Amino acid sequence: MLQIPLENLLISIIFVILASAIFGAATLLFKKATMAVGEIKVHEFKKDFKGKVSKLLNKYMAIAIILQLVAWLIFLMAISRYQVSIIVPVLSTTYIFTAFYCNRFLKEKLSWREMLGILIIILGVIILTYPF
Amino acid sequence: MEAAGLNNFLFYDIISWGSLLLNWHFLLGMSLALLGSIIYVVALSKGKASIINPLSGGASYITIVILSYILLGESITIPKTIGIFIIILGIYLLSHFSNNKPTNIVNNTSGENV
Fold first, then answer.
1. How many CB pairs under 8 A join A and B?
2. What pLDDT score was predicted for residue B12?
3. DSSP state letters, B21-42
């Protein structure tokens, strides 16, 4: 068992929440990229594979892939500093960031059920990471 | 892995990033993540996203806790367990995809419900 100092917990939680925010932004951009094609269906891709893929690989997709790589590296910095079994479930704040971005930029409405879900995820993260 | 080496893993440390890319653990982990996301997309095409999303999230967190107990010697505590189950509940409430129409339909010619 490694002796990990407690101040590493705070640093790694900051890192993992930053990574979640970037993952959420990347998800939003992936969504924007797929909007150029519409609904992705296998039989349409079989008919015109090159055309569909070249439509899918637009500037949003490029930015999203770069953001996802950056988020992975920040996530690695987080799990190198503290217990994996605590840090990985904190990654579920990605869902909150995704809901926030989609509400903000794609005009998707948040219902009371989703608000409750966000509050419950925050409660779970607090219980999980409370160090004493 | 030694405890002193953990703190030396920094953004500006090019040597540690380089050694990470040559590390077979890292490459295997990334390819497993890619495989997992492909299987996740296949699962999404077969069922309701509001069930699959919390299930996959919850299953991955439970797997992480069990594997880190076996392989890394981390402890399974009561707050960890309770927190993970509360997070799974929250993800379930947040998954709304089955209720709403998706917004990505640009050329909806068939008009079928998936």
1. 127
2. 57
3. HT-HHHHHHHHHHHHHHHHHHH
Chain B: residue nearest A76 by CA?
B9
Instruction: Tell if the CB–CB gap between A77 and B10 is shorter than 8 Å.
Output: yes
pLDDT at B5: 47
A2 confidence band (pLDDT: 50, 70, 90): low
Separation in Å, CA of A59 to nearest CA in chain B? 17
CB contact under 8 A, B3 and A2: yes
Domain membership of residue A62 as a residue range: 7-129
| CA gap A81, A78 in Å, rounded | 6
Counting the structural domains of chain A, the total is 1
- Each residue's pLDDT tens digit, A22-48: 998 988 888 888 777 777 777 777 777
Identify which of B10, B61, B86 has the shortest CB distance to residue A123: B86
Residue A2 falls inside a structural domain? no
pLDDT for residue A67: 92
Share the mean pLDDT of chain A. Answer: 83
- A130 CB neighbours in chain B (<8 A) are 79
In whole angstroms, give the CA distance from residue A3 to residue A114.
39
Pairwise CA distance, residues A53 & A34, whole Å: 10
Within-domain flag for A50? yes
Q: Is the pLDDT of residue A119 over 80?
A: yes
